[in-house]
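Notes to self after the call with IL:
- keep both proteins in one doc
- input above output, always
- annotate only the second one for now

Protein 1:
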Amino acid sequence: MRYLIIFAAAWLTVMVPCAAAPVRATHICTPIAGDRVVLIADANDPDVFMWDARANLINYATGHLRGAPWVLAHTILVNAGTPAFVVSCFSEMVRERYGYGIGSEIHDAIGVKLTGGPFQGRFGWVTSSDTLNLHAQR
């Protein structure tokens, strides 16, 4: 009986806080594989860094830089308005350290293949804040 009481107390200690925790809705990537997008950052600086690896994109956004030579070695600067095709999307992977809002902003990591411009055919990674969805015809 004593072990049953200890087990019940331990179980309640773990389960009650879990049950009381707020449930967060699952975020689904806005652009999905197959969507056509246009790359554009913002009005003040419309060109987009396209990264060679998702991990490098995440490191840059979170402020873990290794200097300008590292950034230049792992990116290409894509002109604003360059069309692309979404290959994959990872929901809420990019947490910006230096955002415009209070705290960090959260974005999706999007793998794209460029379909126009001087880098046509290249694959890379951008954030969801750098894309404008053109709603692909399915």
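Protein 2 (the one to annotate):
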Amino acid sequence: MRPALVATLILFSLSGCSSGPIAVGPSQTNAPSGRAYHRRPPGDGLGGPALIAIDQLSGDLIYWSIKDGPSSTPVVLTGYLGTFDSNALVADGDVVIVASLKPAEIIKYNVRSKTETTVADPFGPPFHVAVDKSGAVYAVSRHKIGVFPKNSAQPYEIGCRALQAHQLVSVAIDDENDVFVAAGYRHGTEIVELPAGSPSGCVKLGVRPPSNFGGIGIDPKTDDLIVVDNPGLLCEYEGRLTIYPKPYAKATAETHDFNANICAGGFRLDANSKHIYISDETIDESYPLIDVRSYPSASGNASYVDYAGYTGGFTLLPSTLPN
């Protein structure tokens, strides 16, 4: 691991954890009203691997160069994309995909051609997004899962009985196009699998129920299911990383503590599944952070931060599909 990754620098956002079934993570919060925006100079384009986020004050895409290591000085990638309100980004090749809550739509920005396209989300404001190997985008709104096939303007809905009437908060796709959804129930959060996206065989997984849920994802190199949560009534145990190899049994789970400042939220892996980037916030809860740790060990202690704005969703370029 590079020396930069053991420095204690800062980045991404999260509001305080909820004691209810679903925790509100850094990538699920809006910028506080009255926060001043300090305009940054534009960058000169991506020169290599980058951490990309949306600034919820300006609506700009901003980025940090990975080769330069964690820092508090991102630069501008784009101007206003048409939304200030996005909790989730994901990448597919040169395309950054933005889940816009207001307006409810999927925004795609190609960093190479510098072109932008949008598709309205007819299923509601998308909280979280994932991309399968074909480039199809899966977006979860409060009670629905929308699928947006690549190069098509005709999204469709998938679902199953186990998800009906429950609040959906996060989605992930594996190498076989199995869909994993984190759903809030009265007693807490559970993970539901839709094999190949079909309602047939839809089942709640027998994994440990997340406590103060943060996020789910799939390691594209192994198909392992990754769950981030924050055990304890008020996230006393801040940032637990649990990795479930197939068939996702408690007995074979591997657990690590990555020592978040407050409550850990959504996350993304880098293209080689060597590092994990996790939403967090400064200890005084003033600014979002993006923590970076080695994966799967969760070792290291470094973060990215933007003191000039207020970061929302984030992703990495390059990334590996499914993402």
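Annotation: The two ends are 23 Å apart (CA to CA). Residues 69 and 269 are 16 Å apart (CA to CA).
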